[in-house]
């Protein structure tokens, strides 16, 4: 929920004028309206955050965790399950990002979108 971009930030990106920048803003407008009904101003950019983590993890705080895909549950089959703090002692086979420097995140998104 911390990789959030506000409607004003999305408009600033669109104002860059490229087709890609305008699309970046326009494609999320239904979600922005939905989030506003939940009293959340903006949109959580989980996919861009994942890509930025792969490119530069320095703006994230991530912790080693056990990560598995549920294969036996009747309701949860196919669900990704993580174990950060339990006593199950899963093998730590990945990382879970729990925090982000939002200002640095937004700055990186602006920088990347300005290249179009």
Would you give an account of this structure?
- The chain is of the alpha+beta class.
- It has one domain (4-113).
- 41% of the residues lie in helices and 22% in strands.
- The protein has five helices and five strands; from the N terminus they run βαααβαβββα.
- The protein has helices at 7-14, 19-26, 29-37, 46-55, 102-113, and strands spanning 4-5, 43-44, 60-69, 80-83, 94-100.
- Strands 4-3-5 form a three-stranded antiparallel sheet. A two-stranded antiparallel sheet has the order 1-2.
- α1 (7-14) runs antiparallel to α2.
- It is globular, with a radius of gyration of 17 Å.
- The model has no long low-confidence stretch (mean pLDDT 92).
Give a short synopsis of this structure.
By secondary structure, this protein is α+β, with helices and mostly antiparallel strands. It contains five helices and five strands; from the N terminus they run E-H-H-H-E-H-E-E-E-H.
């Amino acid at each position: 929920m911390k990789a959030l971009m506000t409607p004003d930030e999305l408009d600033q990106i669109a104002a860059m004028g490229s087709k890609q920048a305008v699309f970046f803003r326009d494609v999320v407008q239904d979600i922005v309206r939905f989030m506003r009904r939940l009293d959340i101003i903006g949109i959580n950019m989980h996919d861009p955050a994942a890509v930025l983590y792969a490119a530069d993890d320095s703006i994230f705080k991530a912790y080693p965790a056990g990560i598995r895909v549920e294969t036996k549950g009747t309701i949860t089959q196919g669900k990704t399950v993580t174990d950060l703090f339990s006593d199950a002692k899963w093998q730590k086979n990945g990382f879970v990002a729990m925090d982000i420097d939002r200002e640095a995140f937004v700055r990186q998104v602006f920088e990347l979108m300005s290249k179009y």
